[in-house]
Amino acid sequence: VQLVESGGGSVQPGGSLRLSCAASGSIFSVNSMSWYRQAPGKQRELVAAITSGGDTNYDDSVKGRFTVSRDNAKNTVYLQMNSLKPEDTAVYYCNAEVEVIITPTYVDEYVYWGQGTQVTVSS
Question: Among 17, 50, 91, 109, which is least packed, fewest CB within 10 Å?
Fold first, then answer.
């Protein structure tokens, strides 16, 4: 199973970016999907998460500015980031809890990470 991210880049304060993360491989189902970020010299932190049923939660620092969504048919999670601030600058990682097909009659759950995508907010 692989998670492939796209959509990072550089933007001025107040701008917007949309991140995508697609899971592929021997997937039976994808449960929770999340976005984390890690700024230089800081620990990785949870930004937003969404369950397979669409329930969401957000870090307080991004509430009202970021929106997490997913397309279950495509095993893809998105992060729409609006009103970006310099403090949002970080490498953003997606995370997914995936039920992997081990054999035709057996699945098991694993946690996967994307490769990370840089988001830079600067004037």
Answer: 109
Total length of the chain: 123
pLDDT in tens, 41-82: 999 999 999 999 999 999 999 999 999 999 999 999 999 999
Contact criterion met (CB below 8 Å) for 10 and 28: no
DSSP assignment of the chain, as one string? -EEEEE--EEE-TT--EEEEEEEESSEEEEEEEEEEEE-TTS--EEEEEE-TT--EEE-TTTTTTEEEEEEGGGTEEEEEE-S--GGG-EEEEEEEEEEEEEETTEEEEEEEE---EEEEE--
pLDDT of residue 8: 93
Residue with tokens 């992997």: 100
Report residue 51 CA to chain centroid gap.
12
Please state, in angstroms and as integers, the Cα–Cα distance from residue 90 to each residue in 11, 100, 101, following that order.
Answer: 12, 30, 33
